[in-house]
Amino acid sequence: MAETSASVEERAGMKTAQELADLEKLSATYEPDVNGPLVGQLQSSKILEAEYAGADPVYVRKTAALSPKYSNYRTIRGDGNCGWRALAFGYFELLLRTGDEKFIQNEMDRLKSLCSWMNEVGMSEYLYEDFVEETIELLKTISQSPAIDNPYDDTPVVEAFNRDDASNAIITHLKLLVSAHLRLHPDAYEAFIETSIEDYRSSQIEPYGVQIDHLGVKALVDVLFIPAGLVVEISYLDRSESDEVNVHKFEDESAPPKVTPAEDEAQKTLRMLYRPGHYDLIYKNGDLAPARIPVSYSATAAATTEGGVRVSMMLGTEYTRNPFCSSVFSSQVFTGGGGFDLCEEGYPGLLRGSTGSGLGSTDAMNKGKIDDAYTKLFKHSHYNTSHYQNVNFQPEMWSPQD
Amino acid sequence: MPPSANANASRRLLQELSKFNQEDNPAVTYLGPVDDEDIFHWRGGLRGTPDSPYEGGVWDLDIVIPDNYPLAPPTVTFMTKMCHPNVHIKTGEICLDLLKSAWTPAYGISSTVTAIQALLTSPEPDSPLNVDVATLLRSGDTVGYDSLIRYYVWRYAKKERNTGA
Predict the structure, then answer these.
(1) Residue in B17, B28, B58, B95 annotated catalytic
(2) Which of A282, A346, B104, B114 has its CA 20 to 30 A from that of A361?
(3) pLDDT single digits (tens) A18-74
(4) CATH code assigned at A116
(5) How far A105 CA lies from chain B's nearest CA (Å)?
(6) Residue B164 falls inside a structural domain
(7) Whole-angstrom Cα distance, residue B14 to residue A79?
(8) What is the distance in angstroms between the Cα of B72 and the nearest Cα belonging to chain A?
(9) Chain B contact for A388, CB < 8 A?
(10) ipTM higher than 0.85?
(11) What domain of life is recorded for the organism (chain B) (predicted)?
């Protein structure tokens, strides 16, 4: 008896030790969920709402308020590099979206010249040149035909960022660049670091797989985005008490207040969605190709794709559309007259890349009109989740005076 | 790991090798792949820091390079017995943050060996792999510490090796 119980105990003890060892091994080799593409395709931000439908009320409220404002969402793989990857991807996407070949070439020259910073802090060219090369290569790709002819088609950038080598090389280049920037311009950052710049850059910035922190974002924005006139904005989705995500904008604080029209700014703003420990990208309605819907198809498209986001058009090309357009178009096409006029002038590029006319100045004006129109129309339609007729409507979200 | 990562790593290692052959690194006596077939397995000779108890010693290092290099660090171990607070006396394992969490792709194999040489004279006795010698250092017995190291240098690492690969 005694022997049996002892041996049982022993076995139990061994098992526990084994279990402990297993657990320890698990925790030592733990890696965050790395499923999914490095950079995902555009999706409807409704997905976020669905994801949090059963969660804490704070999240339900915030995600429900998010989707009317930010129509689209793009996942970034949670491999510890998501912040860096989101920012790097967004930078290329914004550059491509300008459709401005000259502008992209200027950025290419600027980034090439910034290599001098890395030399200055003693990095060897032969050790970093491979990384820089990938950045320059992608800039070249998006500054040339065919990519530049379809500035709203993100395929070249998405493809490059899903190739492990290119994607990682580009973020490594940016990490080294930021590291050099920190060492050459310590005054702007030193006050925010508990240790030294040297410790900070070697433990938080340079190593691959270390999540970017707020200061890292700031430094990268200072190096990459602000000199190019681009804005980065982070929406924080967390449990803090409020009804909407908190938005923080990284801008050039030294510059005089901007007088650029909102339209222009939307085209130059990268929006990140931050959930504790992870970054993804979100897009406002106006950020994405508003001028991509052929007039002749709008009515059909609207009729068949209520609330849909990705629509495979008959033209054989995939369009990313936001759900709100469909309601506008259906109403305007059906009411005729002015609606048709608006479409005709506002959407000169009937087919992707067929005219190459891009967005002229008249288009920009008209787009303003459309934005106005559909915001109001949208707000009062049942597509709006805060509208009492919406299927996902939740009473506490309804404020009729809006 | 996709084959492209492997190809990138090979290309970069070849580049590093040709660079090393052009420029002298005072911390290194020899450095290169063990054989022509495998670019991911190197050996190198580490020279003891001048004006330190390690002066005059040369240690063989085994360097194994992962497929996703330079995103991940090489694994470096001492093949010659090394007496140092942060080196395991039996396995030759090295405790150096650069070889673990603080690895950066801006380092190469040659500069990694330089960093290991720098570790010789700036040990971290608070995270020891060799408790005995770390205790000597922590208790302030520098005479004992230095002479123990000198003994190990004389006993195991004294012969100057010229070239390897």
Answers:
(1) B95
(2) A282
(3) 777 776 666 555 454 567 889 999 888 888 888 888 888 888 888 888 888 898 999
(4) 1.20.1300.20
(5) 26
(6) no
(7) 29
(8) 7
(9) no
(10) no
(11) Eukaryota
